[in-house]
Design goal:
There is one protein chain. With 200 residues, the protein is of the alpha/beta class. It has one domain: Metallo-beta-lactamase, Chain A, CATH 3.60.15. The protein contains six helices and 14 strands.
Length: 200
């Protein structure tokens, strides 16, 4: 797995199996992505949620873009996705969108990526499970959770999504969030104040 840092203080990830790769939440650091893909093939882009910090390079590669149906429209609604203060570099005709729902599976070579619906930060937020990794976007962060005050966010749904994640995945699962440091489910069980409050 390769972490891609971004000038927007968000981060994306490249996961590869043999010579095939998936890019999760593409940031604006194209040099890091290109260097890592030099001997590999990018076969798709996964979007955890449609906020601009996580969408910078979605138009750069001619590959399928996987996103939950509740967030697909947000890609083009700049009032709500964060592009209202800057120019959005893509338009609908640029994107090969593939709509996801809860429990969908995507092939990466001989492995599966499990797509789980986790509404709360946005209605269409998702997490992606691959091997021992869980890519959580802005749903679950290290010792924190994502905000719920923006368009289509919902505290009750966020709470249920976080509780589902903590129950479903083992303590050794490596959590790769959209912002901040990588953590584990085990660490969050002990140190995430929101989870500890909500589990009561």
């Amino acid at each position: 797995m390769k972490i891609i840092e971004s000038q927007t203080l968000a981060q994306g990830y490249l996961i590869c199996r043999f010579n095939q790769c998936m890019l999760i939440d593409p940031p604006n650091n194209i040099e890091q992505i290109e260097d890592y893909l030099e001997q590999r093939e990018l076969i798709g882009i996964l979007i955890t949620h449609a906020h601009f910090k996580h969408l910078s390079m979605i138009h750069y590669y001619d590959v399928p873009i996987y996103i939950h149906h509740h967030d697909a429209h947000l890609l083009f609604e700049d009032k709500y996705n964060g592009y209202y203060h800057k120019k959005r570099e893509y338009k609908k005709s640029d994107l090969n969108l593939k709509i996801l729902k809860d429990q969908d599976e995507i092939n990466l070579a001989d492995q599966k990526i499990i797509c789980l619906s986790t509404p709360g930060h946005t209605k269409g937020s998702m997490v992606f499970s691959y091997q021992d990794y869980l890519f959580t976007g802005d749903t679950l962060l290290k010792e924190n959770v994502g905000s719920y005050e923006k368009y289509s966010g919902n505290l009750f749904e966020l709470k249920n999504s976080v509780l589902m994640i903590m129950k479903r995945f083992s303590k050794d699962t490596i959590v790769c969030p959209g912002h901040g440091e990588i953590t584990t489910i085990g660490h969050e069980l002990k140190n995430n104040k929101h989870y500890r409050k909500w589990k009561r």
